[in-house]
Amino acid sequence: MMKPEIIELPDAEILYFPYFFSEAEADLYFNKLINTTEWRQDKIRLFGKEILQPRLTALFANNNKTYTYSGLTMKPESFSDDLLKIKATIEKACNVNFTTCLLNLYRGGEDSMGWHADNEKELGENPEIASVSFGAERIFHFKHKTKDEKFKINLKHGSLLIMRGSTQHFWKHQLPKTKKKIGKRINLTFRRIE
Ligand SMILES: O=C(O)CCC(=O)C(=O)O
Ligand SMILES: [Fe+2]
Questions:
Q1: Residue whose CB lies within 8 A of the most ligand 1 atoms, among 140, 142, 154, for a mutation test
Q2: Cα–Cα–Cα angle for 38, 142, 172, nearest 5°?
Q3: Whole-model pTM?
Q4: What is the ipTM of this complex?
Q5: Is the Cα torsion angle 89, 120, 36, 153 positive or negative in sign?
Q6: Fewer beta carbons below 10 Å: N end or C end of the chain?
Q7: Model confidence pLDDT, tens digit, residues 145-189
Q8: How many domains does the chain divide into?
């Protein structure tokens, strides 16, 4: 197993594998996922207002447990063979067997995800979350909830980012918009929901 970069931040446990998937595998998964996923654009509640999410999503799981965030409850479809292969590959680098995968499609620089922590109660205490990126590189930001600490990382095509331990207690993360002219990016976040 290749060695990860350890992202040394206080109150966090974050590992990064910039080249987890080969370029050829990453290209293949990107194209298949773009074309075969039934992408949807749901409404969420933000500061009491209903807005369309600024990205497309899809939810998959090997059980029927729903996932609720920002006032939105998503029901999963069953995993495709490709998602099962990706899941098995990343589980070699992780401490858990994942049940659920949220797919995000950022259609361009206008699509984004705001500051949040993945701390929904169905994820349990100290959730391990594995985030795979395919397609255009985007900058992922972390900020500590109470300390003056920040960190940015460029998430590469075929990379794997693992957040675990107390990370979600102490840190928020976001994927901001960018004015740069960039292509599509797919993100897969694997989680365990029991
Ligand atoms: O697109 C990303 O890299 C972040 C996705 C994320 O934070 C989430 O789905 O909870
Ligand atoms: Fe997240």
A1: 140
A2: 75
A3: 0.97
A4: 0.99
A5: negative
A6: N
A7: 999 999 999 999 999 999 999 999 999 999 999 999 999 999 999
A8: 1
